[in-house]
Amino acid sequence: MAISLNKSRTIIRKALAHGRETELKPLSVIVLDSGGHVIAFEREDGAAPGRFAIAHGKAFGSIMLGMAGTAQMKRAEDQAYFMAAVNGVYGGQVIPVPGGVLVRDKRGRIVGAVGVTGDTSDNDAAAALAGIEASGLTGEI
Amino acid sequence: MAISLNKSRTIIRKALAHGRETELKPLSVIVLDSGGHVIAFEREDGAAPGRFAIAHGKAFGSIMLGMAGTAQMKRAEDQAYFMAAVNGVYGGQVIPVPGGVLVRDKRGRIVGAVGVTGDTSDNDAAAALAGIEASGLTGEI
Amino acid sequence: MAISLNKSRTIIRKALAHGRETELKPLSVIVLDSGGHVIAFEREDGAAPGRFAIAHGKAFGSIMLGMAGTAQMKRAEDQAYFMAAVNGVYGGQVIPVPGGVLVRDKRGRIVGAVGVTGDTSDNDAAAALAGIEASGLTGEI
Amino acid sequence: MAISLNKSRTIIRKALAHGRETELKPLSVIVLDSGGHVIAFEREDGAAPGRFAIAHGKAFGSIMLGMAGTAQMKRAEDQAYFMAAVNGVYGGQVIPVPGGVLVRDKRGRIVGAVGVTGDTSDNDAAAALAGIEASGLTGEI
Protein backbone atom coordinates (compact mmCIF):
# COMPACT_ATOMS: atom_id res chain seq x y z
CA MET A 1 0.00 0.00 0.00
CA ALA A 2 1.32 3.43 -0.94
CA ILE A 3 0.89 6.59 1.16
CA SER A 4 -1.61 8.76 -0.74
CA LEU A 5 -1.17 12.50 -1.17
CA ASN A 6 -4.17 12.93 1.13
CA LYS A 7 -2.55 10.94 3.94
CA SER A 8 0.73 12.79 3.33
CA ARG A 9 -1.06 16.11 3.84
CA THR A 10 -2.52 14.83 7.11
CA ILE A 11 0.93 13.72 8.30
CA ILE A 12 2.47 17.10 7.51
CA ARG A 13 -0.36 19.20 9.00
CA LYS A 14 -0.49 17.20 12.20
CA ALA A 15 3.29 17.19 12.60
CA LEU A 16 3.30 20.98 12.21
CA ALA A 17 0.33 21.32 14.59
CA HIS A 18 2.26 19.25 17.15
CA GLY A 19 5.17 21.64 16.76
CA ARG A 20 2.96 24.67 17.41
CA GLU A 21 1.25 23.08 20.44
CA THR A 22 4.56 22.12 22.04
CA GLU A 23 6.18 25.43 21.06
CA LEU A 24 8.94 23.99 18.90
CA LYS A 25 10.99 26.09 16.50
CA PRO A 26 9.68 26.34 12.91
CA LEU A 27 9.62 22.85 11.41
CA SER A 28 10.03 21.36 7.95
CA VAL A 29 8.36 18.05 7.15
CA ILE A 30 8.80 15.68 4.21
CA VAL A 31 6.94 12.51 3.24
CA LEU A 32 8.68 9.95 0.97
CA ASP A 33 7.18 6.87 -0.67
CA SER A 34 8.58 3.36 -0.23
CA GLY A 35 11.11 3.98 -3.00
CA GLY A 36 12.47 7.13 -1.35
CA HIS A 37 10.75 9.58 -3.71
CA VAL A 38 9.16 12.83 -2.50
CA ILE A 39 5.36 12.91 -2.19
CA ALA A 40 5.00 16.17 -0.23
CA PHE A 41 7.02 18.74 1.72
CA GLU A 42 6.30 21.90 3.70
CA ARG A 43 8.67 24.38 5.37
CA GLU A 44 7.20 26.72 7.99
CA ASP A 45 7.76 30.46 7.80
CA GLY A 46 10.92 31.34 9.72
CA ALA A 47 12.73 28.04 9.09
CA ALA A 48 16.21 28.24 7.53
CA PRO A 49 16.28 27.98 3.71
CA GLY A 50 18.30 24.74 3.61
CA ARG A 51 15.84 22.66 5.61
CA PHE A 52 14.52 20.65 2.66
CA ALA A 53 17.82 18.80 2.33
CA ILE A 54 17.96 17.95 6.05
CA ALA A 55 14.38 16.67 6.17
CA HIS A 56 15.01 14.72 2.98
CA GLY A 57 18.27 13.23 4.26
CA LYS A 58 16.63 11.94 7.44
CA ALA A 59 13.78 10.25 5.58
CA PHE A 60 15.84 9.06 2.60
CA GLY A 61 18.40 7.20 4.72
CA SER A 62 15.58 5.51 6.62
CA ILE A 63 14.10 4.15 3.39
CA MET A 64 17.34 3.19 1.70
CA LEU A 65 18.63 1.24 4.69
CA GLY A 66 15.24 0.12 6.07
CA MET A 67 16.48 1.61 9.36
CA ALA A 68 14.97 4.61 11.21
CA GLY A 69 16.98 7.59 12.51
CA THR A 70 17.55 6.29 16.03
CA ALA A 71 19.11 3.03 14.76
CA GLN A 72 21.17 4.94 12.20
CA MET A 73 22.51 7.26 14.91
CA LYS A 74 23.56 4.29 17.03
CA ARG A 75 25.37 2.76 14.07
CA ALA A 76 27.07 6.10 13.33
CA GLU A 77 28.23 6.34 16.94
CA ASP A 78 29.50 2.75 16.97
CA GLN A 79 31.09 2.80 13.51
CA ALA A 80 31.45 6.33 12.15
CA TYR A 81 33.38 5.21 9.06
CA PHE A 82 30.52 2.85 8.09
CA MET A 83 27.88 5.61 8.01
CA ALA A 84 30.35 7.85 6.18
CA ALA A 85 30.77 5.11 3.57
CA VAL A 86 27.02 4.58 3.36
CA ASN A 87 26.70 8.26 2.55
CA GLY A 88 29.19 7.78 -0.24
CA VAL A 89 27.13 5.14 -2.01
CA TYR A 90 23.91 7.14 -1.55
CA GLY A 91 25.40 10.36 -2.93
CA GLY A 92 25.76 12.11 0.42
CA GLN A 93 21.98 12.09 0.90
CA VAL A 94 21.78 10.47 4.37
CA ILE A 95 21.36 12.35 7.70
CA PRO A 96 21.67 9.60 10.37
CA VAL A 97 19.85 11.10 13.37
CA PRO A 98 16.34 10.95 14.91
CA GLY A 99 13.67 12.76 12.94
CA GLY A 100 13.88 10.17 10.16
CA VAL A 101 10.90 7.94 10.88
CA LEU A 102 9.82 4.78 9.05
CA VAL A 103 6.11 4.50 8.22
CA ARG A 104 4.50 1.05 8.37
CA ASP A 105 1.02 -0.13 7.40
CA LYS A 106 -1.17 -2.46 9.47
CA ARG A 107 0.67 -5.52 8.19
CA GLY A 108 4.00 -4.04 9.27
CA ARG A 109 5.32 -3.34 5.80
CA ILE A 110 7.37 -0.17 5.19
CA VAL A 111 5.25 2.13 3.01
CA GLY A 112 7.34 5.28 3.28
CA ALA A 113 9.23 7.56 5.62
CA VAL A 114 8.80 10.98 7.21
CA GLY A 115 11.61 13.43 7.88
CA VAL A 116 11.27 16.35 10.30
CA THR A 117 13.87 19.01 11.09
CA GLY A 118 13.96 22.35 12.93
CA ASP A 119 14.08 21.62 16.65
CA THR A 120 16.12 19.03 18.60
CA SER A 121 16.34 15.63 16.90
CA ASP A 122 14.15 14.04 19.57
CA ASN A 123 11.49 16.74 19.26
CA ASP A 124 11.64 16.41 15.49
CA ALA A 125 10.98 12.66 15.83
CA ALA A 126 8.06 13.27 18.21
CA ALA A 127 6.46 15.66 15.71
CA ALA A 128 6.87 13.12 12.92
CA LEU A 129 5.29 10.42 15.07
CA ALA A 130 2.32 12.66 15.93
CA GLY A 131 1.69 13.23 12.24
CA ILE A 132 2.02 9.58 11.27
CA GLU A 133 -0.31 8.41 14.03
CA ALA A 134 -2.93 11.01 13.09
CA SER A 135 -2.97 9.45 9.61
CA GLY A 136 -3.75 5.96 10.92
CA LEU A 137 -0.30 4.58 10.07
CA THR A 138 2.47 3.43 12.43
CA GLY A 139 5.80 5.21 12.94
CA GLU A 140 9.17 3.71 13.95
CA ILE A 141 11.51 6.42 15.21
CA MET B 1 8.20 40.12 0.49
CA ALA B 2 8.53 36.39 0.78
CA ILE B 3 5.91 33.83 -0.29
CA SER B 4 4.44 32.47 2.95
CA LEU B 5 3.72 28.78 3.49
CA ASN B 6 0.04 29.69 3.45
CA LYS B 7 0.27 31.31 0.03
CA SER B 8 2.37 28.37 -1.19
CA ARG B 9 -0.39 25.99 -0.17
CA THR B 10 -2.93 28.07 -2.09
CA ILE B 11 -0.71 28.03 -5.18
CA ILE B 12 -0.31 24.27 -5.07
CA ARG B 13 -3.97 23.50 -4.35
CA LYS B 14 -5.25 25.79 -7.07
CA ALA B 15 -2.71 24.51 -9.61
CA LEU B 16 -3.81 20.94 -8.86
CA ALA B 17 -7.49 21.97 -9.00
CA HIS B 18 -6.85 23.52 -12.43
CA GLY B 19 -5.33 20.23 -13.54
CA ARG B 20 -8.38 18.28 -12.41
CA GLU B 21 -10.83 20.73 -14.03
CA THR B 22 -9.03 20.64 -17.37
CA GLU B 23 -8.43 16.87 -17.14
CA LEU B 24 -4.65 16.97 -17.23
CA LYS B 25 -2.48 14.00 -16.24
CA PRO B 26 -1.44 13.78 -12.56
CA LEU B 27 0.61 16.88 -11.71
CA SER B 28 3.46 17.70 -9.35
CA VAL B 29 3.87 21.28 -8.12
CA ILE B 30 6.75 22.98 -6.29
CA VAL B 31 7.09 26.46 -4.80
CA LEU B 32 10.57 27.94 -4.31
CA ASP B 33 11.49 31.12 -2.46
CA SER B 34 13.52 33.98 -3.99
CA GLY B 35 16.76 32.15 -3.10
CA GLY B 36 15.70 29.02 -4.99
CA HIS B 37 14.95 27.00 -1.82
CA VAL B 38 11.95 24.68 -1.46
CA ILE B 39 8.96 25.98 0.52
CA ALA B 40 6.41 23.31 -0.45
CA PHE B 41 5.82 20.46 -2.88
CA GLU B 42 3.03 18.01 -3.69
CA ARG B 43 2.91 15.06 -6.13
CA GLU B 44 -0.52 13.74 -7.09
CA ASP B 45 -1.30 10.01 -6.83
CA GLY B 46 -0.43 8.32 -10.11
CA ALA B 47 2.42 10.68 -11.08
CA ALA B 48 5.80 9.07 -11.87
CA PRO B 49 8.17 8.85 -8.87
CA GLY B 50 10.85 11.12 -10.33
CA ARG B 51 8.61 14.17 -10.74
CA PHE B 52 10.07 16.13 -7.84
CA ALA B 53 13.33 16.61 -9.72
CA ILE B 54 11.59 17.84 -12.89
CA ALA B 55 9.34 20.31 -11.04
CA HIS B 56 12.34 21.51 -9.06
CA GLY B 57 14.50 21.89 -12.17
CA LYS B 58 11.90 24.06 -13.89
CA ALA B 59 11.48 26.41 -10.93
CA PHE B 60 15.15 26.43 -9.91
CA GLY B 61 16.36 27.50 -13.34
CA SER B 62 13.78 30.29 -13.37
CA ILE B 63 15.10 31.68 -10.08
CA MET B 64 18.80 31.22 -10.79
CA LEU B 65 18.60 32.94 -14.18
CA GLY B 66 15.73 35.34 -13.39
CA MET B 67 14.19 33.97 -16.57
CA ALA B 68 10.97 31.91 -16.79
CA GLY B 69 10.61 28.60 -18.65
CA THR B 70 9.41 30.02 -21.98
CA ALA B 71 12.42 32.33 -22.27
CA GLN B 72 14.76 29.52 -21.19
CA MET B 73 13.35 27.22 -23.87
CA LYS B 74 13.86 29.86 -26.55
CA ARG B 75 17.45 30.26 -25.45
CA ALA B 76 17.94 26.45 -25.45
CA GLU B 77 16.58 26.26 -28.99
CA ASP B 78 18.74 29.14 -30.20
CA GLN B 79 21.89 28.16 -28.34
CA ALA B 80 21.76 24.60 -26.95
CA TYR B 81 25.39 24.77 -25.81
CA PHE B 82 24.63 27.82 -23.67
CA MET B 83 21.90 26.07 -21.67
CA ALA B 84 24.16 22.99 -21.40
CA ALA B 85 26.87 25.23 -19.94
CA VAL B 86 24.35 26.88 -17.61
CA ASN B 87 23.52 23.41 -16.35
CA GLY B 88 27.20 22.85 -15.70
CA VAL B 89 27.49 25.81 -13.37
CA TYR B 90 24.20 25.01 -11.62
CA GLY B 91 25.04 21.35 -11.07
CA GLY B 92 22.67 19.99 -13.72
CA GLN B 93 19.63 21.30 -11.85
CA VAL B 94 17.96 23.30 -14.63
CA ILE B 95 15.07 22.08 -16.85
CA PRO B 96 14.64 24.84 -19.48
CA VAL B 97 11.03 24.41 -20.63
CA PRO B 98 7.63 25.98 -19.84
CA GLY B 99 6.19 25.01 -16.47
CA GLY B 100 8.90 26.99 -14.69
CA VAL B 101 7.08 30.21 -13.75
CA LEU B 102 8.46 33.30 -12.02
CA VAL B 103 6.36 34.77 -9.20
CA ARG B 104 6.29 38.56 -8.78
CA ASP B 105 4.69 40.76 -6.14
CA LYS B 106 2.69 43.93 -6.81
CA ARG B 107 5.86 45.99 -7.23
CA GLY B 108 7.14 43.54 -9.84
CA ARG B 109 9.89 42.04 -7.72
CA ILE B 110 10.64 38.31 -8.07
CA VAL B 111 9.59 36.65 -4.81
CA GLY B 112 9.87 33.02 -5.90
CA ALA B 113 9.08 30.52 -8.61
CA VAL B 114 6.65 27.69 -9.24
CA GLY B 115 7.44 24.50 -11.15
CA VAL B 116 4.76 22.21 -12.55
CA THR B 117 5.25 18.90 -14.41
CA GLY B 118 3.09 16.01 -15.55
CA ASP B 119 1.24 17.10 -18.69
CA THR B 120 2.52 19.00 -21.76
CA SER B 121 4.86 21.85 -20.91
CA ASP B 122 2.25 24.42 -21.95
CA ASN B 123 -0.46 22.84 -19.83
CA ASP B 124 1.97 22.64 -16.92
CA ALA B 125 2.59 26.40 -17.23
CA ALA B 126 -1.14 27.14 -17.36
CA ALA B 127 -1.70 25.18 -14.15
CA ALA B 128 1.14 27.06 -12.43
CA LEU B 129 -0.33 30.36 -13.54
CA ALA B 130 -3.79 29.44 -12.23
CA GLY B 131 -2.29 28.69 -8.85
CA ILE B 132 -0.20 31.84 -8.67
CA GLU B 133 -3.10 34.10 -9.66
CA ALA B 134 -5.38 32.49 -7.07
CA SER B 135 -2.84 33.52 -4.43
CA GLY B 136 -2.96 37.19 -5.43
CA LEU B 137 0.54 37.18 -6.92
CA THR B 138 1.60 37.53 -10.56
CA GLY B 139 3.11 34.80 -12.72
CA GLU B 140 5.47 35.11 -15.68
CA ILE B 141 5.50 31.93 -17.77
CA MET C 1 1.91 -5.12 -6.43
CA ALA C 2 5.68 -5.44 -6.46
CA ILE C 3 7.69 -7.67 -8.83
CA SER C 4 9.00 -10.56 -6.71
CA LEU C 5 12.54 -11.89 -7.02
CA ASN C 6 11.04 -15.06 -8.48
CA LYS C 7 9.26 -13.17 -11.25
CA SER C 8 12.41 -11.12 -11.85
CA ARG C 9 14.37 -14.32 -12.40
CA THR C 10 11.78 -15.50 -14.92
CA ILE C 11 11.98 -12.18 -16.78
CA ILE C 12 15.77 -12.33 -16.98
CA ARG C 13 15.98 -16.01 -18.00
CA LYS C 14 13.35 -15.68 -20.67
CA ALA C 15 14.85 -12.47 -22.05
CA LEU C 16 18.24 -14.20 -22.30
CA ALA C 17 16.63 -17.30 -23.84
CA HIS C 18 14.97 -15.05 -26.44
CA GLY C 19 18.40 -13.62 -27.21
CA ARG C 20 19.90 -17.09 -27.74
CA GLU C 21 16.99 -18.27 -29.91
CA THR C 22 17.15 -15.21 -32.17
CA GLU C 23 20.97 -15.23 -32.19
CA LEU C 24 21.46 -11.81 -30.64
CA LYS C 25 24.79 -10.66 -29.23
CA PRO C 26 25.41 -11.33 -25.51
CA LEU C 27 22.75 -9.49 -23.51
CA SER C 28 22.56 -7.87 -20.09
CA VAL C 29 19.20 -7.61 -18.36
CA ILE C 30 18.12 -5.63 -15.29
CA VAL C 31 14.82 -5.58 -13.36
CA LEU C 32 13.96 -2.50 -11.27
CA ASP C 33 11.10 -2.08 -8.82
CA SER C 34 8.54 0.73 -9.04
CA GLY C 35 10.90 3.08 -7.16
CA GLY C 36 13.75 2.49 -9.60
CA HIS C 37 15.77 0.22 -7.30
CA VAL C 38 17.57 -2.90 -8.54
CA ILE C 39 15.94 -6.27 -7.86
CA ALA C 40 18.09 -8.43 -10.15
CA PHE C 41 20.64 -8.22 -12.95
CA GLU C 42 22.56 -10.65 -15.14
CA ARG C 43 25.27 -10.07 -17.77
CA GLU C 44 25.97 -12.87 -20.23
CA ASP C 45 29.51 -14.12 -20.80
CA GLY C 46 31.10 -12.13 -23.59
CA ALA C 47 29.17 -8.88 -22.96
CA ALA C 48 31.26 -5.72 -22.43
CA PRO C 49 32.07 -4.92 -18.77
CA GLY C 50 30.15 -1.64 -18.67
CA ARG C 51 26.76 -3.09 -19.61
CA PHE C 52 25.26 -2.81 -16.13
CA ALA C 53 25.15 0.99 -16.39
CA ILE C 54 23.48 0.92 -19.83
CA ALA C 55 20.82 -1.59 -18.80
CA HIS C 56 20.25 0.39 -15.60
CA GLY C 57 20.00 3.71 -17.44
CA LYS C 58 17.35 2.40 -19.83
CA ALA C 59 15.17 1.03 -17.03
CA PHE C 60 15.82 3.86 -14.56
CA GLY C 61 14.74 6.61 -16.95
CA SER C 62 11.57 4.66 -17.74
CA ILE C 63 10.63 4.54 -14.06
CA MET C 64 11.61 8.09 -13.15
CA LEU C 65 9.68 9.64 -16.03
CA GLY C 66 6.91 7.03 -16.27
CA MET C 67 7.84 6.86 -19.97
CA ALA C 68 9.32 3.84 -21.79
CA GLY C 69 12.40 3.95 -24.04
CA THR C 70 10.59 4.50 -27.32
CA ALA C 71 8.77 7.59 -26.01
CA GLN C 72 11.99 8.87 -24.43
CA MET C 73 13.85 8.50 -27.72
CA LYS C 74 11.15 10.47 -29.55
CA ARG C 75 11.40 13.25 -26.97
CA ALA C 76 15.21 13.24 -27.25
CA GLU C 77 14.95 13.54 -31.02
CA ASP C 78 12.37 16.35 -30.82
CA GLN C 79 14.00 18.27 -27.97
CA ALA C 80 17.57 17.11 -27.34
CA TYR C 81 18.22 19.80 -24.73
CA PHE C 82 15.24 18.61 -22.68
CA MET C 83 16.52 15.04 -22.34
CA ALA C 84 20.00 16.41 -21.61
CA ALA C 85 18.51 18.49 -18.81
CA VAL C 86 16.50 15.52 -17.53
CA ASN C 87 19.77 13.63 -17.28
CA GLY C 88 21.15 16.45 -15.19
CA VAL C 89 18.46 16.22 -12.55
CA TYR C 90 18.69 12.41 -12.46
CA GLY C 91 22.47 12.41 -12.06
CA GLY C 92 23.26 11.33 -15.61
CA GLN C 93 21.50 8.00 -15.06
CA VAL C 94 19.10 8.04 -18.04
CA ILE C 95 19.66 6.25 -21.39
CA PRO C 96 16.71 7.40 -23.57
CA VAL C 97 16.44 4.61 -26.19
CA PRO C 98 14.40 1.41 -26.70
CA GLY C 99 15.35 -1.43 -24.40
CA GLY C 100 13.95 0.42 -21.41
CA VAL C 101 10.54 -1.21 -20.95
CA LEU C 102 7.83 -0.35 -18.42
CA VAL C 103 6.24 -3.29 -16.59
CA ARG C 104 2.52 -3.06 -15.76
CA ASP C 105 0.29 -5.35 -13.73
CA LYS C 106 -3.21 -6.48 -14.74
CA ARG C 107 -4.72 -3.20 -13.52
CA GLY C 108 -2.31 -1.21 -15.67
CA ARG C 109 -0.22 0.14 -12.82
CA ILE C 110 3.55 0.50 -13.30
CA VAL C 111 5.20 -2.08 -11.03
CA GLY C 112 8.76 -1.80 -12.34
CA ALA C 113 10.91 -1.63 -15.45
CA VAL C 114 13.26 -3.88 -17.39
CA GLY C 115 16.40 -2.72 -19.16
CA VAL C 116 18.14 -4.79 -21.84
CA THR C 117 21.33 -3.93 -23.70
CA GLY C 118 23.76 -5.73 -26.00
CA ASP C 119 22.20 -5.89 -29.47
CA THR C 120 20.32 -3.20 -31.44
CA SER C 121 17.94 -1.13 -29.33
CA ASP C 122 14.91 -2.69 -31.05
CA ASN C 123 16.19 -6.23 -30.50
CA ASP C 124 16.96 -5.34 -26.88
CA ALA C 125 13.35 -4.19 -26.43
CA ALA C 126 11.99 -7.38 -28.02
CA ALA C 127 14.06 -9.49 -25.61
CA ALA C 128 12.76 -7.49 -22.64
CA LEU C 129 9.21 -7.92 -23.85
CA ALA C 130 9.64 -11.69 -24.23
CA GLY C 131 10.85 -11.92 -20.65
CA ILE C 132 8.08 -9.74 -19.24
CA GLU C 133 5.33 -11.63 -21.06
CA ALA C 134 6.71 -14.98 -19.88
CA SER C 135 6.28 -13.72 -16.31
CA GLY C 136 2.58 -12.95 -16.80
CA LEU C 137 3.09 -9.17 -16.67
CA THR C 138 2.67 -6.61 -19.46
CA GLY C 139 5.46 -4.65 -21.10
CA GLU C 140 5.34 -1.20 -22.72
CA ILE C 141 8.36 -0.66 -24.98
CA MET D 1 39.96 -17.19 -15.52
CA ALA D 2 36.80 -15.17 -15.30
CA ILE D 3 33.75 -16.04 -13.18
CA SER D 4 31.08 -17.19 -15.66
CA LEU D 5 27.45 -16.14 -15.39
CA ASN D 6 26.68 -19.78 -14.52
CA LYS D 7 29.09 -19.79 -11.58
CA SER D 8 27.76 -16.37 -10.50
CA ARG D 9 24.26 -17.80 -10.37
CA THR D 10 25.49 -20.67 -8.21
CA ILE D 11 27.23 -18.25 -5.85
CA ILE D 12 24.10 -16.13 -5.46
CA ARG D 13 21.68 -19.05 -5.05
CA LYS D 14 23.84 -20.79 -2.48
CA ALA D 15 24.49 -17.59 -0.54
CA LEU D 16 20.74 -16.96 -0.38
CA ALA D 17 20.10 -20.62 0.57
CA HIS D 18 22.62 -20.24 3.40
CA GLY D 19 20.72 -17.16 4.58
CA ARG D 20 17.42 -19.06 4.63
CA GLU D 21 18.92 -22.09 6.43
CA THR D 22 20.50 -19.94 9.14
CA GLU D 23 17.45 -17.66 9.38
CA LEU D 24 19.17 -14.43 8.41
CA LYS D 25 17.27 -11.30 7.41
CA PRO D 26 16.55 -10.90 3.66
CA LEU D 27 19.88 -10.71 1.83
CA SER D 28 21.18 -9.03 -1.32
CA VAL D 29 24.11 -10.58 -3.18
CA ILE D 30 26.32 -9.19 -5.95
CA VAL D 31 29.07 -10.79 -8.02
CA LEU D 32 31.71 -8.56 -9.64
CA ASP D 33 34.38 -9.58 -12.15
CA SER D 34 38.10 -8.93 -11.70
CA GLY D 35 37.67 -5.40 -13.10
CA GLY D 36 35.02 -4.52 -10.53
CA HIS D 37 32.12 -4.73 -13.00
CA VAL D 38 28.74 -6.28 -12.19
CA ILE D 39 28.06 -9.81 -13.50
CA ALA D 40 24.93 -10.58 -11.46
CA PHE D 41 22.86 -9.36 -8.52
CA GLU D 42 19.76 -10.47 -6.63
CA ARG D 43 17.81 -8.78 -3.80
CA GLU D 44 15.45 -10.96 -1.77
CA ASP D 45 11.83 -9.90 -1.22
CA GLY D 46 11.61 -7.80 1.94
CA ALA D 47 15.13 -6.32 1.73
CA ALA D 48 15.38 -2.50 1.85
CA PRO D 49 15.40 -0.84 -1.60
CA GLY D 50 18.89 0.63 -1.27
CA ARG D 51 20.69 -2.68 -0.77
CA PHE D 52 22.23 -2.82 -4.25
CA ALA D 53 24.54 0.08 -3.40
CA ILE D 54 25.70 -1.50 -0.13
CA ALA D 55 26.38 -4.93 -1.69
CA HIS D 56 28.18 -3.21 -4.56
CA GLY D 57 30.26 -1.04 -2.24
CA LYS D 58 31.48 -4.04 -0.25
CA ALA D 59 32.54 -5.99 -3.35
CA PHE D 60 33.85 -2.99 -5.30
CA GLY D 61 36.22 -1.90 -2.53
CA SER D 62 37.53 -5.45 -2.26
CA ILE D 63 38.42 -5.52 -5.95
CA MET D 64 39.79 -1.98 -6.19
CA LEU D 65 42.10 -2.42 -3.21
CA GLY D 66 42.72 -6.19 -3.59
CA MET D 67 41.73 -6.35 0.08
CA ALA D 68 38.63 -8.12 1.47
CA GLY D 69 36.11 -6.55 3.88
CA THR D 70 37.72 -7.71 7.12
CA ALA D 71 41.07 -6.19 6.22
CA GLN D 72 39.38 -2.99 5.04
CA MET D 73 37.48 -2.69 8.33
CA LYS D 74 40.69 -3.06 10.32
CA ARG D 75 42.28 -0.33 8.23
CA ALA D 76 39.20 1.91 8.72
CA GLU D 77 39.38 1.41 12.48
CA ASP D 78 43.12 2.09 12.59
CA GLN D 79 43.13 4.97 10.14
CA ALA D 80 39.65 6.32 9.42
CA TYR D 81 41.04 9.20 7.35
CA PHE D 82 42.76 6.72 5.02
CA MET D 83 39.55 4.90 4.13
CA ALA D 84 37.80 8.28 3.77
CA ALA D 85 40.50 9.31 1.30
CA VAL D 86 40.23 5.97 -0.51
CA ASN D 87 36.53 6.69 -0.93
CA GLY D 88 37.45 10.05 -2.41
CA VAL D 89 39.50 8.52 -5.21
CA TYR D 90 36.94 5.77 -5.85
CA GLY D 91 33.98 8.16 -6.01
CA GLY D 92 32.52 7.19 -2.63
CA GLN D 93 31.84 3.63 -3.82
CA VAL D 94 33.61 1.68 -1.05
CA ILE D 95 31.91 0.12 2.02
CA PRO D 96 34.81 -1.14 4.17
CA VAL D 97 33.21 -3.88 6.31
CA PRO D 98 32.89 -7.70 6.21
CA GLY D 99 30.55 -8.99 3.55
CA GLY D 100 32.93 -7.91 0.81
CA VAL D 101 34.70 -11.15 -0.12
CA LEU D 102 37.50 -11.70 -2.63
CA VAL D 103 37.13 -14.67 -4.98
CA ARG D 104 40.26 -16.62 -5.98
CA ASP D 105 40.77 -19.47 -8.43
CA LYS D 106 42.84 -22.61 -7.78
CA ARG D 107 46.09 -20.78 -8.56
CA GLY D 108 45.21 -18.09 -6.04
CA ARG D 109 44.51 -15.34 -8.51
CA ILE D 110 41.72 -12.85 -7.78
CA VAL D 111 38.95 -13.49 -10.32
CA GLY D 112 36.23 -11.35 -8.77
CA ALA D 113 34.45 -10.39 -5.57
CA VAL D 114 31.14 -11.04 -3.87
CA GLY D 115 29.23 -8.53 -1.76
CA VAL D 116 26.47 -9.53 0.66
CA THR D 117 24.31 -7.24 2.81
CA GLY D 118 21.18 -7.54 4.95
CA ASP D 119 22.17 -9.14 8.25
CA THR D 120 25.20 -8.46 10.51
CA SER D 121 28.44 -7.95 8.62
CA ASP D 122 29.83 -11.26 9.90
CA ASN D 123 26.72 -13.18 8.86
CA ASP D 124 26.82 -11.45 5.48
CA ALA D 125 30.42 -12.66 5.00
CA ALA D 126 29.51 -16.23 6.00
CA ALA D 127 26.71 -16.28 3.40
CA ALA D 128 29.09 -15.00 0.72
CA LEU D 129 31.63 -17.68 1.63
CA ALA D 130 29.01 -20.43 1.45
CA GLY D 131 28.08 -19.31 -2.06
CA ILE D 132 31.66 -19.05 -3.28
CA GLU D 133 32.64 -22.47 -1.93
CA ALA D 134 29.58 -24.09 -3.52
CA SER D 135 30.85 -22.81 -6.87
CA GLY D 136 34.24 -24.51 -6.49
CA LEU D 137 36.12 -21.22 -6.00
CA THR D 138 37.85 -19.91 -2.88
CA GLY D 139 36.69 -16.95 -0.79
CA GLU D 140 38.76 -14.58 1.35
CA ILE D 141 36.57 -12.71 3.83
TrEMBL record, chains A, B, C, D:
Protein name: Heme-binding protein
Taxonomic placement: Bacteria, Pseudomonadati, Pseudomonadota, Alphaproteobacteria, Rhodobacterales
InterPro entries (UniProt xref): GlcG_carb_metab_protein, PduO/GlcC-like, PduO/GlcC-like_sf
Organism: Sulfitobacter aestuariivivens
